[in-house]
Amino acid sequence: MTLTRTTKLERGRGALGPALELVHTGRAPTRAVLTAELGVTRATAGAVAAELAALGLITVDAHPVAAEGTQGRPSHRLAIDPAGPVVLAAQVHADGFRAALVGLGGRIVATAPGCMTVGADPAHVLGEVVDSGAALLRETRRRCVGAGLAVPSAVAEPEGTALNPLHLAWDAGAPVREIFSGCLAERDIPSGLSGGPATGWTANDVNLAALAEHRHGAGRGAQHLLVVGTGHRGVGGALVSHGKLHTGSSGLALEVGHLTVDPTGRPCHCGGRGCLDVEADPLAFLEETGRRPGPEVSLLEQALELIRAEYDTDARVRAAAGTLIDRLGLGLAGLVNILNPDRIVLAGLHRALVDVDGARLRGAITERSLWGRSGELPVLPCSLRHNSLVGAAELAWQPVLDDPLRLLPA
Amino acid sequence: MTLTRTTKLERGRGALGPALELVHTGRAPTRAVLTAELGVTRATAGAVAAELAALGLITVDAHPVAAEGTQGRPSHRLAIDPAGPVVLAAQVHADGFRAALVGLGGRIVATAPGCMTVGADPAHVLGEVVDSGAALLRETRRRCVGAGLAVPSAVAEPEGTALNPLHLAWDAGAPVREIFSGCLAERDIPSGLSGGPATGWTANDVNLAALAEHRHGAGRGAQHLLVVGTGHRGVGGALVSHGKLHTGSSGLALEVGHLTVDPTGRPCHCGGRGCLDVEADPLAFLEETGRRPGPEVSLLEQALELIRAEYDTDARVRAAAGTLIDRLGLGLAGLVNILNPDRIVLAGLHRALVDVDGARLRGAITERSLWGRSGELPVLPCSLRHNSLVGAAELAWQPVLDDPLRLLPA
DNA sequence: TGTCTTTGTGTCGTTGGCAAACAAATCTGT
DNA sequence: ACAGATTTGTTTGCCAACGACACAAAGACA
């Protein structure tokens, strides 16, 4: 008679995903905290932690050390397994791309920048991106369990097409997700998961930056996080509500670039005037300062450098920053009235603006937003270095976070 | 030895809530459909249906009749028990109030309008509202399991205070939910649920209208439903995302009245110019037609009557409607770019506008919204008579839908 | 009438978790 | 040093909530 014992490892399957997410986002430093956060018994939490450790995703330290000022038996520390699997993450922008391997917890394990041939088509660029990632995988000999890509364009759902890749010289409507997935398949990047080949998860870069900031950065703990930022041209936005990206019904939500912030302002390609896209992006800033943008580095870098180097010494730079802050504040106030976020995080050029005069920005928002608690609404600079890249990794990690048992044995 | 058998009725507890919601929203006409929608076995679905019937919430017909053109054994029909419990729902507006008893399925069982003393304070008004509801309960002898209230003001969460009850002559910040709950307790309206006294669920009327339209009306099945409408003054909005109201972090989301639709337009009390609130509400419409609004009935009713009676004959009325449609379209386009809904439902005056010239409104939205599929975006009139009232009932039903076992035995 | 199709019901086994008793590890006070 | 106090981890027993399966029921169709 075969006695199939219900082993401890088979318990707690339902809580595996939530538990991994807690460790992933740093909200479960110890097993005791995990127990409380999951709302389960110590027995169940123990089984869950053991199973995640058996899957090679987390580590449970063998010899816990007591925290200071606490009584009782010290709890085992939980941590992301530093030798665990990684995902391939990449970000494409106007000047080039960056490929990386990212572990759980949003930790970048290895990364490499790449140049982009001007005018190259998406298949060519994404091929280079995946080649670069594959090289990192060979160097580090890490197991890969997914791939994610951030692009500076709205991405239509569920097709995965790039609708306005203006700064990449790609065709509008290019099937980016399909192309990326194809590149992964061609180069035999395994999915690492049960059920099908590797899927190249693809989304808009600001959306992914927001996701990353919510899970690992300045947006941590926010219920309704609004992220607004610039790349090299234009302004993008994203909303993370209750931990999930609000992408809308077809991925086109938070296209905030065409909020009107100056009815008499610059004409915009959308047909209107004074849109945020043309009034509060790096080019607009450079124009306000009276400088001629040079072709050597990106507009964003020129703008950031100008603020860094001359904000304290050049009144024109200060005035330009103030002008952009007021416009941005107007746009944000409109968004606050519609979305009622409990935190705002700014990226790109806007991050620099809140750094140099956060008070003015907060004032501009409060002045135009309604009965809210906007005075108490935190407006913070983003806190992660490569937030779109980390966000692309989040996308790729999501299936694992949803059900860790889908991981194939190493 | 006591043999405590696991009876059939104790099964399927976890699926009770989802099952009741399916019947409530009309998505489970038969037990077979319920089985498929829940994704459980027939045995479990049977147990769930039996338990809901035992709770007095639904009926399972004894002698099923085969549907035409189908083979196999006919499935039992599921329906809301017409003798089941009700909730007390009420709506307050500038001219008065309306109290009602509403059963599951959004069916209004009994209703009575009420006048409001001009300038009366909230405690007085809500006292009359609850008295009116209590009278209906005595008349109908129905069991009451909750109470909900719709107010024409933003309601701050989690406090439940009315932030801008401009049209009610109430103080801004009046603790409406607390007052309503107090009135219920004073009059011994039972909660009908385990755990505590009756709670007077309270929310903004447009939000509740949106919830009602999503569950029982023109918004059924939408993933991201945007509702915009007028009461007697001003413009309100609401978003239902994946079946849940997006209230934002403190209940103040979708305050769409201050979107700018005409930079050179009327001054608004918010300090700006040309806000939707003053450019697309019933007063604005009446002004555009050149009529002097009379004091006898509400502005909304005057506007609706004017459209009904004179749209076909009076060019000035048509022109005014066109002007408002264009402004509304501009505002909606902005919202579409931010929220990316897959359906728009219009209420109040805006419902009449889409009725008389929906094509113009759809054109105005498409023209200004970006790379979306806005051409395919349905823009519909609302379809429920008292949608805020039904929405208030939804609020009160929610605890029962979440866990029907909280219902106390009759 | 027999067969097919679909739906409802009863039985059994598995699973995922809880409760409680116990064991372990550390702090605190004497 | 030693005895509680406190907190955490582990083991055992148990049970509710299902699914799987076989069978029964009720109609359509030939």
From TrEMBL, chains A, B:
The lineage of its organism: Bacteria, Bacillati, Actinomycetota, Actinomycetes, Kitasatosporales. Belongs to the ROK (NagC/XylR) family. PANTHER family: BIFUNCTIONAL UDP-N-ACETYLGLUCOSAMINE 2-EPIMERASE_N-ACETYLMANNOSAMINE KINASE, ROK (REPRESSOR, ORF, KINASE) FAMILY. InterPro entries: ATPase_NBD, ROK, WH-like_DNA-bd_sf. This is Regulatory protein. Gene3D superfamilies: 3.30.420.40, Winged helix-like DNA-binding domain superfamily/Winged helix DNA-binding domain.
